[in-house]
Amino acid sequence: MTGTMTGAKLSLQDLRIAFGPRRVVDLDRLELATGEILGLAGESGSGKSITALAVLGLASTLGARVEGSVRLDDEELVGAAESRLREIRGSRISMIFQSPVSSLDPLLQVGELFERTLRLHGVRKREASERASNAFREVLLSVDLLQRYPHELSGGQAQRIAIAMALALRSEVLLADEPTSALDVTVQAEILDLLRRVREERGMSVLFISHDLAVIAELCDRVAVMQLGRIVEEGPTARVLGEPEDEYTKRLVAAVPKIGVRA
Amino acid sequence: MSRVPSYPDVESREEVLAPPGRLRSVPGVIRRNPLVAVGAAMCLAIFLVAVLAPLIATYPEDAGSAVHPLQTLEPPSAQHYFGTDQVGRDVFSRVVYGARISPVIAVLVLAISVLIGVPLGIAAGYFGGWIDEVISRVTDVFLAFPALLLALAFAAVMKPSITNTVIAISVTWWPWYTRIVRGQAASVTGRPFVESAKATGIPHRTILLRHILPNSITPIIVQVSLDVGGVILTASALSFLGLGAQDPTPDWGLMVSQGQAFFTTQWWLVTFPGAAIFLTAAAFNLLGDGLRDVLDPRRVLTTR
Amino acid sequence: MTRFVVRRLALAALVVLGVVVLTFVVARVVPGDPAATWAGPRARPEQIEKAREELGLDRPIPVQIAEYVGGIASGDWGVSLRTRRPVLDDIGRRAPASIELVTFATLLALAVGIPLGLVAARWKGKIPDVGSRLVAVVGVSMPSFWLAIVLQLVFFQWLHLLPVAGTYDPNLDYTSPLHSITNMPIVDALLTGNWAVFGSSLQHIILPAIVIAAYPAGVITRMVRASVLDTIGEDHVRMVRALGFPERSVFGRFALRHAWSPVVALLALVFAYALVNTFLVEAIFNRPGLGSYAADAIGALDTPAILGVTLFVAVVYVIGNLLVDIVQAVIDPRIRVS
């Protein structure tokens, strides 16, 4: 990979997110170290996704109120000017989502979206093409796909394209919200592999959000478990999932079906 | 710690219990869209004016065949709020009595359209096959004409009268209902529980009445509420062209056409009846919008 | 893509056939005697009989239908009872001016409706939204014949700003006569470089265009608002925001593109509706065109002419829908697959 080494630290502190009177996230501390893959585990409704959106400053578009601190390296994001946040979105922090195909504008060719986004962040036209092609090669996709429309892509291809976008933009942090939950198991394995490589070769920090503990066990260095907006346990993956201390974590781990073991 | 289920943002208990997208709380809708309350109030006012016409009109006999040759073309005044027309009749009273005509035409037209269109649509959607083909092709042909055009064509070949206006518009209006209901009926029919009902030998009539019909009612109600304004405008256009009500009936469209010759100097002949048409159509349109927001906020059920 | 077009064409042809048959049915529903109308009010019985033979009314119904359909296909749309000329000729001469007016009005409706709908969606729930929804409702509820007269009253009678009627200043027929090529005044004036007539025509077209554009503008505003709001909630918009695009781009550049498809779908309906509206409006503004021809025909109970115009507008509508289908397939690549 010809990419420059990127990677930044993300620190969440005293983060409170509420919809009107109902508080959905009440987070004391969460740290994503540079170059680390941190898993954020929990069931539906635990507040994992809204936390990621709040990092980008997008929770307010859904009508949420955000208080607390989100620091990217040393810069405070909560309360920052919208223009600054827009600079950060994509170019420093990227996000990929659960339904990769529907996350791409159906009326645009993939290449068009790339070009527009890179130009938005100040990359000149020729360099934009180069970056796009290089990124595609990094994610092992044929450059031909730049001419395709989203509905002509498979889930796996679309997700690779989303990751390629983050690479082309030279993002330092990748927020991955259930990126493999909608994909076939074999495709899932490829994407996980890709994320590993991205971290190794680029040093990108990854926040991997998932309800699937098996996947987290495979990929993440550390894991934080969320329940109803709070972090109930945190630590190295092997320790948390192998010897859980919190009651909820124990129940989650016990509920995961294991191949070859009948309940 | 027990697991507490989390609900999406809700504003009322009804919203939690109702299937998503089907029903929203009425106070919430009015808060979000104040114009709806205005529309509802206007509709109520029009209804009251129509019902209480004999009490509100200052010269009730002018709504009929009375003429007053000594009072023609007088401007608005304390005795004649809207002035008098070319044969001396009080315009205010005629406008008030006109409120009995337009909404009634609309109700009749929509009732007929629903009575014809809905059964045809259900038959097409439920039975499918050649029944569907025939009904759908016929509907397509009718829908190939803009509504006003076909109504005009029919009205033009019949003797001008209110009855024929109702007939002419109904003939052009029913196909919309067939198309809407056909879609609904077809999708409900395709569901597994209907298939199994058919397989276990439950008679068609029962399935139609207990499953297909109730599921089609919501789009019908929404469409009807949206159509009232349109029918009123179409009917007034027909009578403006002389194809509807005839003198001395105080039909608003007719009054506008009669006053047209005098509009440069006697502006009140045209302005007030026309304003009545406009306000009535606007009232029902606002109400229809609100009803659609309550029953079909995702707009998946209506075609117009 | 070709298969798509061919299929749509075949369907359109079928519908047109049905339309023709339906107009025939409408014609025969007439109580009253076309032969008597043709022969005139003072005709004697044997003259009426002769008229009946001439008009082919004495032959069996299926034969009449076949003759009618054949006639339509070969350009014989009957003869106007009023002008005594072939209906198709009349339509051919009068339609272009109306089409020019309707096109103008449609463009005006788009120019007003799209920005208004976009503004309403962007500031949903706030004053711009309520304001533009109010404007939309007004547009949709306005009786066109009334609006026409009121505008004449306000802008001509009271404010003396705009001309009351006509296509262009009649004096120009002497000072700068217009050479007719397409029968569309503005287009002809442009083509022949007749700037006096061009300017005057534009002045004269403003009020009628506003009247005809009112309803379509209202419909387009609502449609754009609904479509943009629908699109905003979708996954790909969330992605675009996460990529750092400002809200004005999100609405104006990305979401608006998705609104084009439903707006284009509306255009056929809007165009046909506007064409029918000329029946009401052209007479009021004293503009010769298809609309005033139809209004005259209605007044004179000129059945062949009425049916001819009906058929013409219906065919325009079918063709319009066909074009709309094709344009939609071009805009949205997903449609070509289905």
Question: How would you characterize this protein structure?
Answer:
- The complex is a heterotrimer of chains A (263), B (304) and C (338).
- With 263 residues, chain A is of the alpha/beta class.
- Chain A contains 9 helices and 10 strands.
- Chain A has a 6-stranded mixed sheet, sandwiched between helices.
- Chain A is globular, with a radius of gyration of 18 Å.
- Chain A starts with 9 loop residues before the first strand and ends in an 8-residue tail after the last helix.
- The longest helix of chain B has 37 residues.
- With 338 residues, chain C is mostly helical.
- Helices cover 78% and strands 0% of the residues of chain C.
- The N and C termini of chain C lie close together (10 Å).
- Chains B and C meet through helix 7, helix 8, helix 11, helix 12 and helix 13 of B and helix 1, helix 6, helix 7, helix 12 and helix 13 of C.
Features:
heterotrimer, B: 304 residues, mainly alpha, 66% helix, elongated, disordered N terminus, C: 338 residues, 15 helices, 78% helix, 0% strand, globular
Q: Biggest interface between protein chains, with counts per chain?
A: B-C, 50 and 56 residues
Number of strands of chain A: 10
Helix-strand sequence of chain A: EEEHEEHEHHHEHEHEEHH
> In angstroms, what is the radius of gyration of chain A?
18 Å
Q: What's the multimeric state? A: heterotrimer
Total helical elements of chain A: 9
- Mean of pLDDT of chain A: 90
Distance between the termini of chain B: 51 Å
Biggest β-sheet of chain A, characterized? 6 strands, mixed
Helix vs. strand class of chain B: mainly alpha
Largest sheet of chain B: none
Our estimate of the beta-strand percent of chain A is: 15-25%
Terminus-to-terminus distance of chain A: 45 Å
Give average pLDDT of chain B, whole number: 81
Number of E-type strands of chain B: 0
What fraction of the residues of chain B are assigned to beta strands by DSSP?
under 5%
H/E series of chain B: HHHHHHHHHHHHH
Overall SS class of chain A:
alpha/beta
Strand order of the largest sheet of chain A: 6-7-8-3-9-10
